[in-house]
Design brief:
The chain has 397 residues and is α/β, with parallel strands linked by helices. The chain contains ten helices and 20 strands. Strand 15, helix 7 and strand 16 form a beta-alpha-beta unit. Bound molecules: S-adenosyl-L-homocysteine.
């Protein structure tokens, strides 16, 4: 971190996107390096005519530099302190970091918080930190120290979980573990007054999907007296909101038995012994094929069907097929909450896929709400790739 940064010189004309603050430099844009950076090192980016333009983390791959600064500031502990402080201030303005009802939120959302490659979720007194770049991995201890300072006593534990997010090429020890605290950790957090276990050791992502917080709250308002099917339930978030909303019955489905166990545990935490809830470890498509036409509120929140642009076509077919199955079986006057978290699937792509599904299912469908990611997952306006979650709430005649 202290050595003189290497310099990356761009090919002629390749600075346009950087002039517009887009935070990625692709390998094809780089003409040559002065110095020999190692993966994860800080490098400075210069135009062909030797004008400084950005500073960022270097990495082997198609995105070669992730920009941390356009102002030439050193990437040192005070850099992380400033950025984490700003991220926290925003979460206070949103009303999350100071809420008595919710103690789980995203504190750092990569490019959306001008910290490309870094994700930090807060679960009460524990932060779960993920590095998506080698640079952030190398800086993890400095970041952890800054995070403890910024959170000023509100945080006791920092769990580092990057074994699935670091690039294979990085060839570094992808170990997970506590960077701070780690003793007597309580893994129960709260969202809008509802409790849930967070499995940061084995769970997906950082252990819970905090990005559906507001959409779950909306679902709660639609749940009174409804027969609810929560498809792809994972930790059961939508299920326990539906129960608080007064659902008549709630069925949760996920292909993973571990997810079903977590769902049962979380429902039990909020509604012990409540017989309205049942969970099934089954494949979504099979379940939809075999189910009765009894549900009048269905949630479809599948994993990302397309992780890359070349998988887009098949992904859209997948969304259509899935939504068609649900639309064929939903009770008349039913409500469908349907989502896509694939970044490469645009809002229009998704809407078209659902449109196709509705037409094939021969159902008359109205859009009641258009949903998206919450404010603690901000989108850097110069980095539209940061927009990923979209959803529709449909009324089905
Ligand atoms: N709705 C959840 C998040 C869903 S994550 C929430 O609010 O937290 C996607 C889930 O889909 C994962 O738990 C995964 O196990 C499950 N899944 C993946 N493929 C599936 C399939 N074919 N059938 C059923 N569940 C599946």
């Amino acid at each position: 971190m202290n050595k003189q940064p290497a310099k990356a010189y761009l090919r002629k004309g390749k600075e346009d996107s950087l002039n517009r603050y887009h935070p990625w430099v692709f390998s094809g844009a780089i003409h040559h390096f002065e110095g020999e950076p190692e993966e994860g090192d800080v490098v400075e980016v210069y135009t062909g005519d030797n004008r400084y333009i950005a500073t960022g983390h270097y990495q082997i791959g198609s995105i070669m530099v992730r920009v941390l600064s356009f102002e030439g500031e050193p990437i040192d502990p005070s850099y992380y302190l400033r950025h984490l402080n700003e991220a926290l201030k925003i979460r206070e303005r949103i009303g999350l970091a100071n809420s008595t009802e919710t103690n789980s939120f995203r504190l750092v959302h990569g490019e959306g918080d001008n910290l490309p490659g870094l994700v930090i979720d807060i679960y009460d007194k524990t932060a779960v930190m993920q590095a998506h770049s080698v640079g952030m991995h190398k800086d993890r201890n400095i970041i952890a120290e800054a995070l403890l300072k910024v959170m000023n006593g509100r945080l006791q534990h920092i769990y580092y979980k990057s074994e699935t997010t670091l690039p294979y090429k990085a060839n570094i020890l992808e170990e997970s573990g506590f960077l701070a605290g780690g003793k007597d950790v309580c893994n129960i957090a709260m969202e809008n007054g509802l409790q849930f276990h967070v499995d940061w050791l084995k769970g997906q992502k950082t252990g819970f999907f905090v990005d559906q917080r507001e959409n779950r709250k909306l679902l709660e308002q639609y749940s009174k007296g409804m027969k609810v099917l929560n498809m792809f339930c994972y930790t059961g978030g939508f299920s326990f909101y539906a129960m608080r909303g007064g659902a008549e019955l709630v069925h949760s489905v996920d292909s993973s038995q571990k997810a079903i166990d977590l769902t049962n545990a979380n429902v039990g935490l909020n509604f012990p012994g409540d017989s309205r809830h049942q969970a099934f470890a089954e494949d979504a498509f099979k379940f939809l094929d075999n189910m009765q036409e009894q549900y009048n509120l269905i949630i479809l929140d599948p994993p990302a069907f397309a992780k890359h642009k070349n998988a887009l076509h098949n992904a859209l077919k997948g969304y259509s097929r899935l939504n068609q199955k649900a639309l064929e079986k939903i009770a008349p006057g039913g409500i469908l909450f349907t989502f896509s978290c694939s970044q490469v699937v645009t809002k229009d792509n998704f809407r078209n896929a659902v449109f196709t599904a509705a037409a094939y299912a021969h159902r008359k469908v109205r859009i009641l709400h258009q949903l998206h990611q919450p404010a603690d997952h901000p989108i850097n306006i110069y980095h539209p790739e940061g927009e990923y979650l979209k959803g529709l709430v449909l009324y089905v005649e």
